[in-house]
Amino acid sequence: MGSDDQQLDELTKITDSYVSLSELTVRLQADYLELSDKFEKQSRQLEEINNQVTKALEANSKLSTYLSNILECLDAGVVVFGVDGKICLFNRAAEMLTGISRQKAIDKHYITIFPGDEHESTFSLLNGTQTKARGEKWFGSQPVGYSSSKIFDDNGNCCGVVEILYDISGEKKLRKTIRQVSALAALGEMSAIVAHQVRNPLAGIIGFANLLQRDLPSDHPSANLAQKISRGANELNRIMTNLLNFTKKTKPDFRELDFIKFTKEVISSFSNEHVAGKIKIDFLGLSMVKKMVDFHKGTIRANSPAGGGAEFIIELPL
User: Fold this and answer.
1) CA spacing 20 to 30 A to 317: which of 2, 180, 199, 204?
2) Is the whole-model pTM more than 0.85?
3) Range of the domain at 21
4) 222: CATH
5) Backbone conformation region of residue 140, classed left if phi is above 0, alpha if psi is from -120 to 50, else beta
6) For residue 100, what pLDDT is reported?
7) 123 within 8 A of 110, measured Cβ to Cβ
8) Beta bridge mates, 145
9) What is the pLDDT of residues 273-287, one digit of tens each?
10) Can you give the CATH number for the domain in which 105 is found?
């Protein structure tokens, strides 16, 4: 019996161990399932985070591309350089205005690409106390206006400078036109005063010359002189009349005409002597021509041929 009790006791222990092992297995299986469930949840969370990051990166890439496209479409040139002075952005308009390619400018020092005192005001913003600079400068024959500003980060530290370039050639032409118009206005006012002052005594000269021509016999020695006085006074009066007409503010009265017929009539009005190249052109005549060409929004150019004389080319839009 002792042996049987011992075997029974061992069997009981084995049974208990088996039960304990089974319970442990159940707990391990439960823990495994719980861990699997947590892992799956975390995997889903990580996948969701990854998707969000991917979408954010795609959105950031699209935004970056969108901003880049905007910069490329601007008429104004944009140049950006960092605290090291190296250019990191150089858009298409900057290439066109400066005549410098992007490949040559990017990663190069600003002063290396733009040497000269006229560019110093922009570069000095980097280490100076000023935060903005404005002015004009030239790139070859291209006049350019610029507006430069410091760039600050969220902490208020300077992280670079942005320079905006814009074409001011149209503005330059407008300024020149305004100066010309002002000069012409002053000239017109003065000419009108002079013309009025001259025409009054001129009318008396013409009147007395006509009286002399009437009273003197045709064979009188002074008859020819009186005729010359009258002819000269009338020519002067014609010039004064044209001068007054030139200074008046007039509006064009456009009408349809046969341009070829009109041109032939103009040519035929000149004598053979004129056609031979002896046309006398004065300042007032050219001024009247220029005024008429401007009315038609055309252009007039003058050339001096090698053989002498002058050539005037008029171009009118159709």
Assistant:
1) 180
2) no
3) 1-70
4) 1.10.287
5) left
6) 96
7) yes
8) 136, 166
9) 454 445 555 555 666
10) 3.30.450.20
Final residue before a domain boundary, out of 198, 223, 249 = 249
Name the domain count of the chain: 4
Cβ atoms within 10 Å of 148's Cβ, excluding its own: 23
- Shared domain for 64 and 98, answered yes or no, is no
Six token digits for residue 155: 């902490």
Of 70, 90, 118, which residue constitutes the final position of a domain? Answer: 70
Nearest to 238 by CA among 226, 246, 228: 246
Please report the pLDDT score of residue 19 as a whole number.
Answer: 65
